[in-house]
Design brief:
The protein is of the alpha/beta class. 53% of the residues lie in helices and 14% in strands. It has helices spanning 38-48, 63-72, 89-95, 115-121, 175-185, 191-198, 216-228, 238-255, 261-277, 283-296, 299-306, 312-337, 341-368, 372-375, 386-398, 402-427, 431-446; strands spanning 11-16, 32-33, 36-37, 53-58, 77-81, 103-108, 111-113, 126-130, 143-147, 150-155, 163-172, 202-204, 210-212. The strands form three sheets. Strands 1, 4, 5, 6, 8, 9, 10, 11 and 12 form a nine-stranded mixed sheet that branches. A hairpin with a 2-residue loop joins strand 2 and strand 3.
Length: 447
């Protein structure tokens, strides 16, 4: 009987004994999707949650390649060889019998999982199944029929089914009683055979991004999935949600295999500075380039999340550089377009408000240790975010309404800051709320 897992297992078995014939006979786990080997993505995401040792089961032909991968990536664990891969992936699991104790995670080298999926999956037990698979070809997927929370049938061709097998399992060594018996009785045994015979319990993780990669077309789909689900979203304004992200994700899709987030941040900053300098010669062109820079501003974050290269410093630096670009653009546009003490004052208020929009939310996070967009949801819909201000700049400058632009930004940004302060005050953070936020923070650090 499979026992419930109270915490994340420290070991993971990854099955990689297939020959990848539809991929040109290459080890599929070592193919790169969104800048990383598929198997490395899984290892990194599991490592974040406390998995510290990885057992890769492969065939004799690919053993050297996986061994070299583990050495160069400093992965703790070992590569073991299934000398009879023709006996099926169920037999590959059986080969790992002597290398695990207690509970362990089992997954596939050719499956791409999102961080959100793995965070949920490791909390389950048995077979992790998906009743709302969004990114897989259902016709090719392995289906699962359950009764009373356990598998009663599994396969690609079964007529009645409840969910799709995600290729992710949380097991314990009791599973080897089943593999031992099947290994004696059958020449070839699939993992589906093992699951069916063991009547594994099922945990449903529904609708979160994952997919298996069997063909070159699947590689493209996996890349698209990772980029589209790399959109942070919570802090996006109206323009980002409905325009910028549609373009930025297209750009990210084409860059993610070749360009890192750091390089993209540098390019975005350079484009932003250029847009500001163009105000001295031709403000309409400057405004269009400023909007393009706003679109690019989402790309580095998308690349970082899709490539699993996020860092606190990266986000910190990106925010600082945005403030420099905004300040320089407003200052040089004002230098070229307005005169007189009153307009200088309006420009100053607009510039101050633009900086304070970001500062007011970041300072909230520093004071309460939580993202304000998580606890003050109206903030997500208040106008005045950077993407909206940049778009307004483009439209009004193209229409020749430069002075109205400064006046509108001066009012819009400072009203938003005042509303942010009011909403924070209204929420009234008592000691209880503060402690709740601290628990949220600790939970985020754990995962």
């Amino acid at each position: 009987m499979l026992q419930a897992v109270s915490e994340v297992p420290t070991k993971a078995v990854i099955l990689a004994a297939g020959f990848g014939t539809r991929m040109g006979r290459k080890p599929k786990g070592l193919l790169r999707v969104a800048g990383r080997e598929i198997i490395h993505r899984t290892i990194l995401l599991l490592s974040e949650l406390g998995v510290s040792e990885f057992i890769i089961v492969t065939n004799e032909e690919y053993s050297t390649a996986y061994t070299e991968f583990m050495r160069t990536r400093n992965v703790k664990g070992r590569v073991i060889t299934n000398r009879h891969p023709e006996r099926g992936n169920g037999y590959s699991l059986h080969v790992a019998k002597r290398h695990v104790t207690g509970s362990f995670i089992l997954t596939m080298a050719d499956h791409v999982y999102s961080r959100d999926f793995i965070r949920e999956a490791v909390r389950g037990r048995g077979l992790i199944a998906d009743r709302g698979a969004r990114f897989v070809d259902i016709g090719e997927a392995t289906k699962v029929k359950t009764v009373n929370g356990r598998v009663v049938d599994i396969g690609k061709e079964i007529r009645e089914w409840d969910a799709v097998d995600t290729g992710f399992f949380v097991l314990d060594v009791s599973i080897f009683k089943t593999t031992e018996r099947l290994a004696r009785e059958k020449l070839s045994m699939s993992l589906s055979d093992v699951v069916r015979e063991a009547k594994l319990p099922v945990t449903f993780v529904d609708g979160l991004p994952w997919m298996d990669v069997d063909t070159p077309e699947d590689m493209k789909k996996a890349r698209r999935m990772l980029v589209r689900t790399a959109v942070k979203g919570r802090g996006d304004g109206f323009i980002s949600r409905h325009l910028n992200r549609k373009i930025s994700t297209w750009i990210s899709y084409h860059l993610v295999e070749h360009v890192g987030p750091g390089s993209m941040t540098a390019v975005t900053f350079a484009v932003g500075v250029l847009s500001a300098l163009l105000n001295l010669w031709f403000p309409p062109l400057a405004a269009v380039l400023y909007q393009f820079d706003s679109i690019l501003d989402g790309v580095d974050g998308e690349l970082a999340r899709a490539r699993l290269e996020t860092s606190k410093f990266g986000g910190y630096l990106d925010s600082i550089l945005d403030r420099y670009v905004d300040g320089l653009f407003i200052a040089l546009l004002a230098y070229e377009s307005v005169s007189g003490s009153l307009w200088y004052l309006i420009v100053l208020v607009a510039l101050l408000g633009s900086v304070m929009v970001s500062y007011s939310t970041e300072r909230f996070k520093g004071a309460y240790f939580i993202d304000p967009y998580d606890v003050i949801k109206p903030l997500r819909y208040l106008p005045g975010k950077r993407d909206e201000r940049v778009f307004i700049a483009m439209v009004l400058v193209l229409l020749g309404l430069v002075k109205p632009f400064f006046g509108l930004i001066a009012v819009l940004t400072n009203v938003r800051v005042a509303a942010t302060v009011y909403l924070a005050w209204k929420r009234s953070f008592t000691t209880e709320n503060y402690l709740m936020n601290m628990k949220y923070l600790m939970k985020e650090k754990e995962v």
